[in-house]
Amino acid sequence: MSEQCMAGPTKLEEYSEKYKDLLLMTRRNGILEVRMHTQGESLQFDWPVLTAYGNAWSDIGRDPENEVMILTGTGDHWQVANPEIWKTKFMDWRKNRKLEMYQESLRMIENLIFCVDIPTIGVINGTGSHWQMGTLCDITICAEDTNFFDAHYLGGVSPGDGIVLALQNLTGIKRAAFCAYTGMNINAQVALELGIVSEVLPHEMLLPRAWELAEMIVQAPRSTRHLTHSILSRPWKKALVSNQGFQLAHQMYDMAIDEEGTYERLMKIRERFQKNNSAS
């Protein structure tokens, strides 16, 4: 097959425009900063966002001009969960849409690990949902006032979206079980002690430090960067292959037979949920 017939890599100009309402992307000297947002504020998570994540990681990973990726959020929250998205009970969703959600939920984190084949730095700028994406990066730094928690069990849903998987692999099975059942907050300093994050910094120092680290990393030969990332990400690849599909399937089955509904149950614990989300 001639080179002209082969599909080429995606270009930053193309995919940065495609995802601009979700991810603001800037690149300098091979370092790609990806900042999640909604209209310039903290990202408001919804189902189109879930769909876009896996596609974005694939596009970013196929661009050979990306050498290091910095992933961060906007404002004081990593992401903001919106219970309104659960107003339609999952058991009432169309069968095909349930399957699509399963696949998209897997791609949200699997494509971050399997498609982005370069060193990654997660900059968790505050408390929020789906913080596991930041901890799946090779290096993770967070703001001093960040709290890590999982509200699934409190909301009557089995925890299968990847947060418990991250906790199991970073903190151990006993700590992960306690966090899952109680929804306890893990503050930034404890997260550092447990190995969930690599450094804890004041909010204004996060991105400068991330760029400092990225500029240090990018000095190594290209082969060294890529192969080192491959070594460092392999435990996550093994964990995802072994357990993520299993955990997510359990969560989605639980939701599919839930007659009360996630939204109704979340409203019962609204004060606890809002307290966690405003902790930053």
UniProtKB/TrEMBL annotation:
Belongs to the enoyl-CoA hydratase/isomerase family. GO terms for molecular function: catalytic activity. This is Enoyl-CoA hydratase/carnithine racemase. InterPro entries: ClpP/crotonase-like_dom_sf, Enoyl-CoA_hydra/iso. It comes from Lacrimispora xylanisolvens. Pfam families: ECH_1. It comes from the Bacteria.
